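Regression test case RT-17, inverse folding.

Input:
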């Protein structure tokens, strides 16, 4: 990535762009990991609801939330990468 990162107030201070890119990369990976964990947990809730005979509305809400979160993460990271580059 280049150092032409433009903020709302102007350009990056010298030497700050690589640090901003590193922090953004860590945040993206952490959010993607959390979305994966959310999928596993919602799958476990769905399995528990199926085998215990309870309704699966809570599990479907959790699965929908994990899907929406994953879409939001991918859209935000794509937007941030397009603004940085």
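Golden output:
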């Amino acid at each position: 990535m280049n150092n032409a990162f433009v903020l709302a107030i102007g350009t990056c201070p010298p030497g700050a762009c690589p640090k901003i890119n590193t922090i953004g990369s860590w945040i993206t990976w952490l959010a993607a990991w959390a979305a994966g964990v959310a999928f596993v947990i919602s799958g476990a809730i769905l399995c528990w609801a199926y085998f215990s005979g309870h309704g699966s509305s809570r599990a479907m809400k959790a699965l929908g939330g994990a899907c929406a979160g994953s879409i939001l993460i991918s859209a935000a990271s794509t937007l941030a990468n397009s603004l940085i580059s």
